[in-house]
Amino acid sequence: MARLDDAARRLHATLLVVGPRRAGKSALLRALRDRLPRAEPTDTAGAPLGEPLLDWLPLDLGTVGEWQVRLDLYAIAGTPDHEATRRLLVGDADGLLIVADSQAVRLDDNQALLGALTELLTGADGEPRDVPRVFCYAKQDLPSELVVTPEALDRALNPSGAPSVGADLLRGRGAVDALHALVRLVLRRHARPPAGS
User: Fold this and answer.
1) Which domain holds residue 79?
2) What average pLDDT does the segment 51-62 reach?
């Protein structure tokens, strides 16, 4: 869950990058790692750690609005053998960056992932937890006869109208835009205006 320091105007949030197998989660993290300032990873005692694993990316975005923003991004494999990890991380997620594979032949995989994600977000009361989310439609650079347009993917996968971004993640296009859209939603959800505003 987000850690807020209202007095210092600091937000430290956990964002999950989810998607079906081979949709582009690792490519998204690589694109962000290459384009944004990374935070120095530390262990729980505050000691610096070595190079982070690809499935975890700490970022320090600096000042966003009036807030100092630090993020931990975790990419979770879309395979059943990672169910326990997904369940644990989804429970603490402040936002979801959903990487959908734009290839027409992968539409069922995208829908299956969203169904599994809804199950993971569903609490004891039977209602899914409302978590800010942004869709990143990867592989939009493939030939048009192979991919579904972002508008059609929105209709199929995103009926609630969450923000979405078409992306070519191997070239980094769309990665930062998708992250910025999610950070704005998370800030809107968690950050409060300063006293006296």
Assistant:
1) 3-190
2) 72
